[in-house]
Please model this.
Amino acid sequence: MKKFILSFTTAIVLSFSGQAFAGAGHSHGVSEPISEAQATQKAEAIKQQLVSSEQVSSEWKGVEAGSPQQRSTSAGNLWVIEYANPQAADENKAKLFVFVDEFGNPVGANHTGEL
Model:
């Protein structure tokens, strides 16, 4: 009987121990959509990362963003931030488009503007 009580008590204690380790200060709920200014900041960080990883030419480093626009896609609303570089060596790569979802997560970047 003593082993049964010990096993039962152990099972009860262990069933509640997971809740004891759950931290506070975070949420698993839906995030708030970002603003136009926040979308521009996220796109700038993505552009700088593309330059530093040499995925795009270093000539994009100082190029300023145009006005962000929202697009509705099957994947949800996206912010599209366009960078124009009239001094680009390749005319087909004179624009850079950065796509950020409505919560600020990077979706992609390219020179065509197509997602």
Residues 36-110 form one domain.
